[in-house]
Automatic annotation (TrEMBL), chain A:
<protein>
    <submittedName>
        <fullName>PaaI family thioesterase</fullName>
        <ecNumber>3.1.2.-</ecNumber>
    </submittedName>
</protein>
<dbReference type="Pfam" id="PF03061">
    <property type="entry name" value="4HBT"/>
</dbReference>
<keyword id="KW-0378">Hydrolase</keyword>
<dbReference type="InterPro" id="IPR006683">
    <property type="entry name" value="Thioestr_dom"/>
</dbReference>
<dbReference type="GO" id="GO:0016787">
    <property type="term" value="F:hydrolase activity"/>
</dbReference>
<feature type="domain" description="Thioesterase">
    <location>
        <begin position="67"/>
        <end position="139"/>
    </location>
</feature>
<dbReference type="InterPro" id="IPR003736">
    <property type="entry name" value="PAAI_dom"/>
</dbReference>
<dbReference type="InterPro" id="IPR029069">
    <property type="entry name" value="HotDog_dom_sf"/>
</dbReference>
From TrEMBL, chain B:
<dbReference type="GO" id="GO:0016787">
    <property type="term" value="F:hydrolase activity"/>
</dbReference>
<protein>
    <submittedName>
        <fullName>PaaI family thioesterase</fullName>
        <ecNumber>3.1.2.-</ecNumber>
    </submittedName>
</protein>
<keyword id="KW-0378">Hydrolase</keyword>
<dbReference type="InterPro" id="IPR003736">
    <property type="entry name" value="PAAI_dom"/>
</dbReference>
<feature type="domain" description="Thioesterase">
    <location>
        <begin position="64"/>
        <end position="133"/>
    </location>
</feature>
<dbReference type="Pfam" id="PF03061">
    <property type="entry name" value="4HBT"/>
</dbReference>
<dbReference type="InterPro" id="IPR006683">
    <property type="entry name" value="Thioestr_dom"/>
</dbReference>
<dbReference type="InterPro" id="IPR029069">
    <property type="entry name" value="HotDog_dom_sf"/>
</dbReference>
C-alpha cells in the first residue's frame, strides 16, 4: 500500500471496506443455501454488494424469462442477515423474523446485485432495508425490509439444550 | 402421498398446475403440487441439506419457505380465478413463526382471499408435514393481466412474448 500523496482518510476507508467485504464473505460462506445459490460478496463504490449470478435453475417464468420471486427473496433475506450479523459487536447469528418484499420491475435472467442499509441496529433486533438491481442501480427491481432477532445469551443457552 | 387430482380440473387450473411444475426454480427445490381444491392449493417440498440456514443446525433457510409461498400463491391465483392470464407478484410479506426443521417436509397451503380484475390477494400458511405445526404465514398481492406475456404450459419457449 502506498502512503505517498494521499491523505490518511481514503486509505483507511479503503482498508475498512476491504475488511468489511472479507467479514461479509466469511459470514455468507457459512450459509449452505447461500453457497447453493452462488451468492458472491463484492466491493462496490459505496460499500459491500452481494452478487447473484444467473443460472437456469433460478428461473421462475420461462416465457419471459424472469427470475423466480423467491430467488430475489433469498438474495434480500440473506443479504440482510449478513449485514445485521456483521454489524453486531458479538457477530451473533440473527434469526429472520419477517420480511416484506416489493417487486418493482421484472427480474430478467441476468446478474442481480443487492446492497443493504441498516435502518436500525438495536440490542435485540435489527431492521435492514435491501435494494436489488440488475443493469442500473437507480432502477431497482425489488426492495425488501427484513426484521431480524439477535439472540440473547439466555436464548442461545436454551437452544443448546434443545428447547 | 395421494395421486394428484389434476385430471378433475378445468383446463385453466390444469394448465397452471402443469406450468407450476415446470418452473425451473421449483423443480430445483423439488416442489410438488399435491392438490388444488376449491380455490385452495397445497404444495410440498422435501428439505435437503443444501437448503439449510447454518452449518451446525438442521434448520431450513427461511428463503426456501419464501420460494414455496411465492409458488403456491401464484398457483392459488389461478385456482381462484379459473382462467389463464399472466400474473406478477407485487409484494409478499412473510412471518416466520418457528424454525423449520430439516427432518420434516414442508407443506404450503395457499388460498385466494379476494380477486378483482386487476389484483389477487393471497394468504399462504407453511406447515410442517409431520405435526402440522404452523411454521410461517405469508400474505401476497399479485397483479393480474400483466402485459407482454403469453401463457402456454407445455410449450416451453414456443411462443414467448
Amino acid at each position: 500500500m502506498s502512503t505517498t500523496g494521499d491523505s490518511a482518510q481514503p486509505i483507511s476507508g479503503a482498508a475498512e471496506s476491504g475488511k468489511e467485504c472479507a467479514d461479509w464473505q466469511a459470514l455468507m460462506e457459512r450459509i449452505p443455501y447461500a453457497r447453493h445459490l452462488g451468492l458472491e460478496v463484492q466491493r462496490g463504490d459505496a460499500g459491500v454488494l452481494v452478487h447473484l449470478p444467473c443460472r437456469e435453475a433460478l428461473i421462475g417464468n420461462f416465457m419471459l424469462p424472469a427470475l423466480h420471486g423467491g430467488v430475489l427473496g433469498a438474495l434480500i433475506e440473506l443479504t440482510a442477515r449478513v449485514a445485521a450479523q456483521s454489524q453486531d459487536a458479538e457477530t451473533r447469528c440473527p434469526r429472520i423474523l419477517d420480511s416484506h418484499i416489493n417487486y418493482l420491475r421484472s427480474a430478467k435472467a441476468r446478474s442481480t446485485f443487492a446492497r443493504a442499509d441498516i435502518v436500525r441496529q438495536g440490542r435485540r433486533t435489527s431492521l435492514v432495508q435491501v435494494t436489488c438491481w440488475q443493469g442500473d442501480e437507480n432502477k431497482p427491481i425489488a426492495t425488501g425490509q427484513v426484521q431480524l432477532l439477535l439472540p440473547t445469551m439466555a436464548a442461545q443457552q436454551e437452544d443448546r439444550h434443545g428447547h | 402421498m395421494t395421486k394428484p387430482n389434476r385430471t378433475q380440473h378445468s383446463n385453466a387450473v390444469a394448465t397452471a398446475w402443469q406450468f407450476t411444475e415446470q418452473v425451473p426454480h421449483g423443480r430445483e427445490l423439488g416442489m410438488q403440487v399435491v392438490s388444488v381444491d376449491q380455490g385452495q392449493v397445497c404444495m410440498r417440498l422435501t428439505p435437503q441439506s443444501w437448503m439449510f440456514a447454518q452449518e451446525d443446525t438442521k434448520e431450513i433457510c427461511t428463503s426456501v419457505l419464501y420460494s414455496l409461498a411465492d409458488s403456491a400463491g401464484g398457483l392459488a391465483v389461478f385456482a381462484g380465478a379459473l382462467e389463464l392470464m399472466p400474473i406478477a407478484t407485487l409484494d409478499l410479506r412473510m412471518d416466520y413463526l418457528r424454525p423449520a426443521s430439516g427432518d420434516q417436509a414442508l407443506l404450503a397451503v395457499a388460498t385466494c382471499r379476494h380477486l378483482t380484475d386487476e389484483v389477487a390477494f393471497i394468504h399462504c400458511d407453511i406447515l410442517s408435514e409431520g405435526n402440522r405445526e404452523l411454521l410461517a404465514t405469508a400474505n401476497a398481492t399479485f397483479m393480474r393481466n400483466t402485459q407482454g406475456q403469453q401463457f402456454h404450459a407445455g410449450g416451453r419457449g414456443k411462443e414467448s412474448a
